[in-house]
Amino acid sequence: MQSRARLKKTTSTRPASKRTVLAVGWILALLLASLAAAASANDDKPAPEQKVDSGSFGVFLNGHRVATETFSISQSSGGSAIVSRFKTEGGADKAEQTSAWELTGIGDLRKYEWKEISPGQSQAYVEPSGEFLIEHFKNNPQDKEQQQPFMLPASSTLLDDYFFVQREVLAWKFLASSCKTENGALQCPLKQPVKFGVLNPHARSSMSVSLEFAGREKVTIRGAQVELNRLELTSESGTWSLWLDDQFKLQRILIASENTEVVRD
Fold it and tell me: CA-CA distance, 216 to 243, in Å (whole number)?
């Protein structure tokens, strides 16, 4: 979870049926995917791929839009995929990057690919290797591939630079492990941080972050006031505030220390 200051320059239980899992949202389908896979195995035909979230986030620095991330999250009986594209707005140093994160049926990393489209052409991919993760990377297509191991299991979460949808996936992990729903209402213990080991492939660094539920809060988004669930994401670089709606979809991120806001379009 690195600083966004570089935007000013360039950005290089119990078994449940498939129907029940889908009814409570993809938050459980992702983290209890083994249950969904087991349910699908009992069907005559494999479940088709389902898109569970898609859209775009606008990135605002000091109130001015500086970038856009478009994303898609899909799930099938064989696993899940989170695909994203990040672009800065106009200018001679316009930057563009893509990422593709593939998960197995139980939510472990299968493969992650990151590419810089402009202004450079660096690229990387991460895959599990035994009890470790291995990152393969090149700063230029003609360079010899290099490798870097990380002492992280395949169940670790990725938090790459500029791909905010990956914060949504981490939030789902937290909610599924620490919260419950009763009569459609989310219930979480207040101010009880949970730690996660994460990998930032772009920066080629691992770190520990914590998430905690900060309660319900009314916020104004696109001129309308809505009540959302607030989470606090903390790392060595600072604290981000995340707001999710009642369908557990990320609506807003505030990085107060950097005057940066990320808002779903």
Answer: 9
Token couple for 5: 């200051």
Q: Which residue has the higher pLDDT, 177 or 59?
A: 59
Per-residue model confidence as pLDDT tens digits over 214-241: 999 999 998 899 999 999 999 998 999 9
pTM, rounded to two decimals: 0.84
pLDDT digits (tens, 9 = 90+) for 247-261: 999 999 999 999 999
Amino acid identity of residue 25, one-letter, is G
What residue spans define the domains of the chain? 5-264
Q: What pLDDT was estimated at residue 44?
A: 54
Beta partners for 149?
134
Nearest to 240 by CA among 227, 229, 231, 248: 231
CA 149 to mean position of chain CA atoms = 22
Find, among 1, 10, 67, the residue nearest to 202 by Cα. 1
